[in-house]
Amino acid sequence: MKTYILSALFLMLNLFSTANLKAQQHLNDKNNYVVLTKKIPQLQPIILTAESLKAEEGDDFGDFQVIICGKEIGDITDTHKMKKFIRKAEEAGVHLVACGFSLNKFKIDTTKVPEEMKVVENGILYNFQLQKKGYKSLSL
């Protein structure tokens, strides 16, 4: 009798753990990326990397986000500096994100943030939240 109970318990545990694994695989069927950077000039190689990954992975390529944080966050309000990066990011399917915490800390006028950029309350927290969703992460 103990053997039947233990066998049934073992079988149920295996079935539930396999179902959970399949659900996780379904949610992460694309390769998603997030890069946290503190310097605007780094956008050039980051966007080139996204383009290469997209070409290499084809249909497996998912979302690519770049979070900009730190003391140089004010550079995103320089339209001359940002125009080419925004255009290249849009062409590559890269989403640019500004850290609201950095904007507030360094007293940057949020009305001057390009409308193409998403602003999140806390860039570091947002990065961790994306990692929990299965995003591959890199900080520069």
UniProtKB/TrEMBL annotation:
Gene3D superfamilies found in the cross-reference section: DsrEFH-like
Signal peptide: 1-23
Keywords per UniProt: Signal
Protein name according to UniProt: Sulfur reduction protein DsrE
Organism, scientific name: Mesonia profundi
